[in-house]
Every structure is written in C-alpha cells, then in structure tokens.
Amino acid sequence: MDNLYKPFLSEIKSITKHTEDEYTFRMAFSGDVKYGQFFEVSIPKYGEAPISVSGIGEGYVDMTIRKVGKVTNELFEGSVGKSFFMRGPYGNGFEVSDYKGKELIIVAGGTGVSPVRGVINYFTQNLGEVTRLSVLTGFRSPDEILFQEDIKAWEQNQHYVCTVDKGCEGYTGNEGFVTDYIPKVEVSDAKTAQAIVVGPPVMMQVAVKALLEKGLTEENIWVSYERRMSCGLGKCGHCRMSDKYICLDGPVFRYADAKNLVD
C-alpha cells in the first residue's frame, strides 16, 4: 500500500519576487494538477505549510508564498537549484470547463489572487472560450500588488480592473475596495454568468452579495476557502467545517453549498 503522507523532493526552478513578503517559487512537478489545488510543502525540523497552486506548466507548478511563519520563513531561504519536500496536489480546484462558453467574472483580493492567477491567465490567453471575461483584483497598497508582469497582459482585456485602498500617496490608478467595482461590471445574462470569488472572508461576503444583487445565482458563484489544511487527506480534522473537509471537498465550492458551512 502506498504511503499517502510520503513527500517527494522538488527542485526550485526559479524564484520571482513580488513584494518583500511574497515570492513565487517555480517547483519541478510532473503530474495531474488543477488551478486552485494545493500542496503541502515541508522542511524537516520546521514542519509543513499548505500552499496553493498559482500556475501550471510543462514540468512545473508555481506556488506563491507569503512569509508569515516558521515554515514559510524558512522557505524564503531557498534558492534556485535547491529542493523542498512536497506532497499533493490536494483538493478539487477549478474546472475551466465549468466556465467555457459563458460570461466569467473573477473577483480576488490580496493573496487571494494567487489561487485564481492560473484561471485568469488561461482565459486571458483563450478569450474565445468565454463570451466575456471580467477580472477585478484588489490590494491594500501599490507595494503589495502581485503578478505585475501578468497584469500587463490582463490589462489588454478591456474588462480588467486593479485597485488599491484609498489614501495611498502618489498612486494614480483605481482606488477603493475591489468590491466597489462589481456594480460596474457588464453582464448580458446574469442567470448563466459564472463568478469566482477569492480573498479575505469579509471581502468574499461583500463580493458575493454584490454579485447576487446583479442577478447571478448561488449555483454559479464559486468560492475558494483558505484554511489551515494539515493532513490533506481528511483525517486530522483541522480544516473541517460542518460536515465538510476543506482539503477533500474544497477548497473550491459553489456558493450554494459553501453558504451553509460553519466552524
């Protein structure tokens, strides 16, 4: 019987610095993986941390990591050519087939942009597979904007908005909360339009409410929950909400199902 907890070594292929506390590590990986899934990344003597997939390519996965604790602090000591232990991928991820041929709205805030970066890139590069793509991303300040190279491509899509909180001195772009811009998004058929919402819990609540007010249905709004996933196999119970295990049943849910989940 295979040991499902056994990690594998993955080499760091490249490192991209976004902010002082957020880097994207491109890790060697060959196998099936979906946007929005996550890996458990570990360093002996330091522990494990669940990290979402922020990009997929031939022979690699991207993982955007924020320096927030013992394990992630140590990950930042890594350099190209070194290796980390990983296991996964876990969770259900986003199925791009759910959105093809429809209007798609993506609303993400802060580090919540990471799990949907791959989805945005996919449809930005394949605009013909959706009838309309609208992307809204929000950050607290200009210094915290992630994926600026990707954003240059996203901006070619006329329905892209990047915003930062009000009061950032010298900033000349869009200001305010990302949710402020949802009412301005054009929707031709709200009953069939799809939406993805990822970010801090309060932002997600406000975003879902605004999307419902536009006429989107609970079945067509998708959310991704960020929890302290530990085992990744639904055994430890750390990520349990109601009768669901986020590491198995999520982290991606239809809002119609997610709205009933409680700690």
- What is the CATH architecture annotation of the largest domain? 3-Layer(aba) Sandwich
Choose one word for the global shape.
globular
The CATH topology of the largest domain comes to Rossmann fold
> What is the H-and-E element order?
EEEEEHEEHEHEEEHEEEHEH
Average pLDDT figure? 92
Can you tell me the number of structural domains? 2
**For the largest beta sheet, what order do the strands appear in spatially?**
10-9-8-7-11-12-15
Distance between the termini: 34 Å
Largest sheet composition: 7 strands, mixed
Secondary-structure class = alpha/beta
Helix content: 10-25%
CATH class membership of the largest domain? Alpha Beta
CATH superfamily of the largest domain: Nucleotide-binding domain of ferredoxin-NADP reductase (FNR) module
For the CA atoms, what is the radius of gyration?
18 Å
Give a nutshell description of this structure:
It is built from 6 helices and 15 strands. The protein is an alpha/beta fold and 263 residues long. The model has no long low-confidence stretch (mean pLDDT 92).
Draw up the topology in text.
Layout: E1 8-17, E2 22-28, E3 38-43, E4 47-57, E5 60-66, H1 70-75, E6 83-90, E7 103-109, H2 113-125, E8 132-139, H3 148-154, E9 160-164, E10 174-175, E11 194-198, H4 201-213, E12 221-224, E13 240-241, E14 244-245, H5 246-249, E15 252-254, H6 255-258
Parallel strand pairs: 7-8, 7-11, 8-9, 9-10, 11-12
Antiparallel strand pairs: 1-2, 1-6, 2-5, 3-4, 3-6, 4-5, 12-15, 13-14
Tell me what the structure shows.
With 263 residues, this protein is of the alpha/beta class. The protein has two domains: 8-90, Translation factors (Elongation Factor Tu (Ef-tu), domain 3); 96-258, Rossmann fold (3-Layer(aba) Sandwich), CATH 3.40.50. It is built from six helices and 15 strands. Strands 10-9-8-7-11-12-15 form a seven-stranded mixed beta sheet, sandwiched between helices.
